[in-house]
């Protein structure tokens, strides 16, 4: 019996303007790097690329941590790598949960047999240092985990005072920087963060597939003092760090071309300059906010805690969430995200990350959104959002 096979057409994805919660747009030079000739994972050329990736990640993390590398996997793999290496069965972790990704950190810890204590804030709110001090004094955990930039809500968490409280309690501080790294300051050394993880597909504007992580000397000492093996062989830093370190001991076949892409993406970040990059993200956030306010759309997060790269806004009453997002994608090729958890159907998540944080994206999105809203019967003054954003750029951007 012969099985007939029909040849599928080549991959030809549509060209989108990515303004959701990730991935973000990717520069042509990064895509070209992904298509460079593949070499072996122990080839001297690739080992040199690994060293340079580590060096650039240290700069972007604002750290001198020796154990800084790109985990082979997306941001969730970085989360799991940090959790499983810092915790053994029975160890206690306090997780600050105010969105989907705090809850995910708690889930990962629970699956390896850690004792998990969660403190909660409503989606879109952040934690005070007083709340953290209270739970640290009561629970005395080994680790406190918290999300710096909660992708599901658009809320930015202040960390410096919380870090001081964590170390006063002789605990380790674990931070989710998936959405913040490369778009707002992530000062690992200055804020005394013990372990942090991120992802390539947000403000670093590289396709998803790698997770930058960094560990302080205090975190490394805790890992070295473990009494049990790390529950994940693949993510065991005692072996992975030997591959990324001087011994170059084979552990797994790294995704070579993904690292080529990340190398180029990091080069672009550093070529722009960290402060310039932070300023760009903030300026485009402000322009978007000005334009949205002009058509009656408000942010879902308090002013003091708004993320510049992930703008969560309230959907106006009577407007169909999915219908508007569908029109934006179908008619204009623009992707934005919907709300998650209790915010589903109530908020839109508009990403201005890395390559997607551009004035052209802001103005295109506002024009497209106005048209979709008018078509849906929403009352607004046509052109008001675009005009307000343009006025912001005219009065604040000098070059």
From TrEMBL:
The keyword Transferase applies. Its cofactor is pyridoxal 5'-phosphate. Gene3D superfamilies: Aspartate Aminotransferase, domain 1, Type I PLP-dependent aspartate aminotransferase-like (Major domain). Its EC number is 2.-.-.-. GO terms for molecular function: alanine-glyoxylate transaminase activity; L-serine-pyruvate transaminase activity. Substrate binds at residue 349. The keyword Nucleotide-binding does not apply. InterPro entries: Aminotrans_V_dom, Aminotrans_V_PyrdxlP_BS, PyrdxlP-dep_Trfase, PyrdxlP-dep_Trfase_major, PyrdxlP-dep_Trfase_small, SP_NH2Trfase/AEP_transaminase. Signal peptide: none annotated. One of its GO terms (biological process) is glycine biosynthetic process, by transamination of glyoxylate. The modification N6-(pyridoxal phosphate)lysine is found at residue 202. It holds the Pfam family Aminotran_5. Residues 38-339 form the Aminotransferase class V domain. It is an enzyme of class 2 (transferase). Keywords: Aminotransferase, Pyridoxal phosphate, Transferase. Belongs to the class-V pyridoxal-phosphate-dependent aminotransferase family. PANTHER family: ALANINE--GLYOXYLATE AMINOTRANSFERASE, AMINOTRANSFERASE CLASS V. This is Purine catabolism protein PucG. It comes from Gimesia algae. The lineage of its organism: Bacteria, Pseudomonadati, Planctomycetota, Planctomycetia, Planctomycetales.
């Amino acid at each position: 019996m012969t099985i007939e096979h029909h040849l599928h057409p080549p991959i030809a994805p549509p060209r989108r303007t990515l303004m959701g919660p990730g991935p973000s747009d990717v520069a042509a030079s990064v895509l070209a790097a992904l298509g460079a000739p593949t070499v072996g994972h122990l080839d001297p050329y690739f080992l040199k690329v690994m060293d340079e990736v580590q060096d650039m990640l240290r700069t972007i993390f604002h750290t001198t941590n020796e154990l800084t590398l790109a985990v082979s996997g997306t941001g969730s793999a970085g989360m799991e790598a940090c959790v499983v290496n810092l915790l053994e069965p029975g160890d206690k972790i306090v997780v600050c949960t105010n969105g989907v990704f705090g809850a995910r950190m708690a889930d990962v810890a629970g699956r390896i047999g850690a004792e998990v204590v969660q403190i909660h804030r409503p989606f879109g709110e952040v934690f005070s240092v007083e709340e953290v001090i209270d739970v640290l004094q009561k629970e005395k955990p080994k680790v406190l985990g918290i999300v710096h930039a909660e992708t599901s809500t658009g809320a930015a968490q202040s960390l410096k005072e919380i870090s001081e409280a964590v170390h006063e309690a002789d605990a380790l501080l674990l931070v989710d920087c998936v959405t913040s790294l490369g778009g707002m300051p992530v000062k690992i050394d200055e804020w005394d963060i013990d372990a942090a993880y991120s992802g390539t597909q947000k403000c670093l504007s590289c396709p998803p597939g790698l997770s930058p992580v960094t560990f302080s000397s205090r975190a490394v000492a805790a890992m070295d003092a473990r009494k049990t093996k790390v529950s994940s062989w693949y993510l065991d830093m005692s072996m992975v760090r030997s591959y990324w370190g001087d011994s170059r001991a084979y552990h797994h076949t790294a995704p070579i071309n993904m690292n080529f892409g990340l190398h180029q993406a990091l080069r672009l970040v550093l070529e722009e300059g960290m402060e310039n990059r932070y300023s760009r993200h903030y300026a485009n956030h402000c322009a978007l906010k000005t334009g949205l306010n002009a058509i009656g759309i408000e942010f879902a997060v308090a002013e003091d805690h708004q993320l510049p790269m992930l703008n969560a806004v309230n959907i106006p009453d009577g407007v169909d969430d999915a219908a508007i997002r569908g029109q934006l994608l179908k008619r204009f090729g623009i992707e934005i995200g919907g709300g998650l958890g209790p915010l589903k159907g109530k908020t839109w998540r508009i990403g201005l990350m890395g390559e997607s944080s551009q004035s052209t994206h802001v103005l295109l999105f506002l024009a497209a959104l106005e048209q979709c809203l008018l078509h849906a019967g929403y009352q607004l003054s046509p052109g008001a959002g675009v005009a307000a954003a343009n006025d912001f750029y005219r009065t604040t951007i000098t070059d």
